[in-house]
Structure formats: C-alpha cells, structure tokens
Amino acid sequence: MQLIKSGKVKDVYEAGSGQLEFVFSDRISVFDKIIPSEIPHKGETLARTSAYWFEAIKEMGIPSHFIKLTTPNRMLVKRVNIINDYSKINRQTRNYLIPLECVTRYFVYGSLWDRVQENLVKPEDLGFPNGYRVKLAEPLPKPFVEVTTKLEKVDRNLTTEEALKISGLTQREYAKLKETTRKIDAEINSRVQSRGLIHVDGKKEFAFDEKRNLIVVDTFGTADEDRFWDAEEFKKGRYIEKSKEFVRQYYRETGYHEKLMNARKKGLEEPAIPPLPREIVEKVSEIYIRLFEDITGQPFR
Questions:
Q1: Which positions ≥6 away from 253 have C-beta within 8 Å?
Q2: Four-way CATH pick for 2-296: 3.30.470.20, 3.55.40.20, 1.10.10.10, 3.30.499.10
Q3: Residue 155: is its pLDDT beyond 90?
C-alpha cells in the first residue's frame, strides 16, 4: 500500500476501491506538538476504542466512514477528499472532509479554563449568570459547543460566520453537524456513566459522502480526542485523569506549556517539546489500556 500521509498519531495508506487504511501508531502529541516518546500499546487501544464507538453509532443510524478493523491497530475506512484550499469548497462540493472540529465541553477545564482566566470567555458565555465566579472543574449549566479549524497547523476557534465560510456548509447543515454531535455525546455519556467514568469533553469530525450526506470520520471517544475522569474520585472532589489530559497536565506542571503559549502569542520560535520520563510513559500506557477496558467492557488481552 502507498503511504499517503503520516500524521501526528496515524499513518494513512491508500487501500484501493475508494478506501484508506489507518495505522494507529504509538506516537503521542499535545498542544499540536509530537512528543519524542512512544506509548506502548497506545495505537491498538485507540483503534479498538474507535471501532467500538463506530459500531455504537451505527446502531443509532448515524453513518460513518468506518468499514472494519483489519488488525488490532489498523482500520479500513471509506475515502473522502481533503481540500486544503477553502476557496475550492462550496455548497455543491461532495465527498470531502469538512475542515472543522466540533468540540463539546461539559466541565470548565483545559484550554477553556485558561480562556476563562484570561477573560476571553465570560461566565455568561458558558450559561452562568453575569458576574459569576467560575471555578476550575465545575460542571457547566449547559454543554458549551465550539468549532475550530481542522486542517491548519494550529487549531483556532471560529465564529459561526467563519466556520460557514471555510466549510461550504449551509446553516441547516451546520445545525445538523452540531445536532449529530449532541446525539453521539448523549450515547457516550450514557455508556461511560454506567462504567464509572465522567465524560468531560470531546471532539468530532465530519465529512460529506458522494451524495453530500453527513458522515462521521476520523476517530472519537478515545483517550486522545476526549477527556474522562473517574466518577467516584470526582465525588470526593478529585478529578483523576483517565485520558491524554494526564500528559497535558504533566507539561503544564513542568512549565513547558507556559513557554510554548508565550512563544506562540509573541510569534517567536516554539520551544522543542522534551520527551516523557520512563515512569510517565509507563503510567500513560496504563491509562490508555485501562480506559479502553472501562469504555468497552472488553479485556485488552
């Protein structure tokens, strides 16, 4: 098979007959930076967790690009075109990756908390009363939905107008994208709650097929795309990371995240991301394996 693209996490191969094969590597990235450390078994957990969710939404009648797993870390999918030039996308374009990511948040955490502290997101934007003092890790009064870029080097938040302009979506199609995201998340939330998890936030990606029907693509509901906490620990006032967020927090604690964000704001050269210590690598591998088992109810081995 011909290698088409080597991404931050996946390698994408041409598989013939309008199909692609995703090979999930053990690479890991945070803040749009690939970490020079590999996480044992990470790729397999992502592929198998993704397959679990694709089968779940199939039962719901929501179409996707998923065909089947070919090995524990390889997935066969329907191919859609990637159009990097936004000017070539319009309301008649078919069979293409919609260049947006739909992010839904249920708690004040991660980059949302950063923006709250910087007053870039106000309490009333999140459904709180005007002047309310927002707290870290508290549940939101209503889901907070954001749309960001998909094909740019660093993701940026978009207004509705900007999202429609670059994606070729109509208002109705844009509303359906968000509605489909909510339906999928409702299923995720229901399933993981029964397994002792809290779904903190997550992202979805979409495409149009040859008839311009909306389909779910890439992956979702995994330790890479979504955040999960331990429900019992949360009741005690602790939010125990059960996803890639554990790695993000590590780089926040070491000061790397602050240096990176300062460089980006000032337009300076970005500092190289250091590798993870061996003990952190082992802990992260354990988190990915355990989350796969918690979500799917299946043993990893």
A1: none
A2: 3.30.470.20
A3: no
